[in-house]
Amino acid sequence: MAFVVTDNCIKCKYTDCVEVCPVDCFYEGPNFLVIDPDECIDCALCEPECPAEAIFSEDELPADQEAYVEINADLAGKWPNITEKKDPLPDAAEWDGKTDKLQYLER
After folding, report:
1. Residue 81 falls inside a structural domain
2. 8: domain range?
3. Is residue 13 situated within a structural domain?
4. Does some domain include residue 7?
5. Residue 87, exposed/middle/buried by CB under 10 A (0-12, 13-18, 19+)?
6. Residue pLDDT tens, the chain, 107 long
């Protein structure tokens, strides 16, 4: 089982999780991060580091976030790898906690 980045990361893109990943399985888009499920070793180090609480183990994924399993797998193959922490998006604090952000995902 891999970990999955979900809805609350959109328009926030905190990268605290990237810094602790031992296998560099995060990929970065314009306003969202994803985890490559084939590279993730299920170590769970990233989950507690996410300030937006947007990372879940695939087996603990809320039902309304299941679409993100496929989104993570798809976009990990298209986006560049990220291995170092960066500043979050400028208005991240305003977007943190808002729901139904899939419409704002920039691919």
Report:
1. no
2. 1-59
3. yes
4. yes
5. exposed
6. 899 999 999 999 999 999 999 999 999 999 999 999 999 999 999 999 999 999 999 999 999 999 999 999 999 999 999 999 999 999 999 999 999 999 999 99
